[in-house]
Amino acid sequence: MSIEDKKNEVLDLLKKTNDSELIEEVYNLLHPDEAMEEISVLQLPEHLQQKINKAMEDYKTGNYITHDQMKQKVQQWLIN
Predict the structure, then answer these.
(1) What's the rounded Cα separation, in Å, for the pair 24 and 11?
(2) Rounded to the nearest 5°, which phi and psi values hold at 61?
(3) What residue spans define the domains of the chain?
(4) Which of 18, 19, 32, 63 could connect to 58 by a Cys-Cys bridge, CB 3.0–4.6 Å?
């Protein structure tokens, strides 16, 4: 099945569904910055709020490594 076919099938299924959780998940996948902003940290102690806010800023500015990049680093550490 081609990418275009898959895209059309996904769109058709989304149009037919009433599953609000599924729609929210898809929306969050397509808008990760908005999903990150919805996370409430106000119940946490101040020092943890600051760390989370710093991590979110790092994410927004691209100052992070992916899971695959981290796995490669770990493999390199284990080899050396």
Answers:
(1) 14
(2) -90, 5
(3) 3-79
(4) 63
Distance, in Å, from the CA atom of 67 to the CA atom of 73, rounded to the nearest integer, reads 10
d(CA 4, CA 12): 12
φ and ψ of 56, to 5 deg? -65, -40
Q: Summarize pLDDT for 53-74 with one digit per residue, the tens.
A: 898 889 889 999 999 999 999 9
Residue 38 confidence (pLDDT)? 60
Summarised one tens digit per residue, pLDDT across range 4-54 is 999 999 999 999 999 998 998 888 888 876 655 566 667 778 898 899 889
Q: Specify whether the CB–CB gap between 76 and 69 falls below 8 A.
A: no
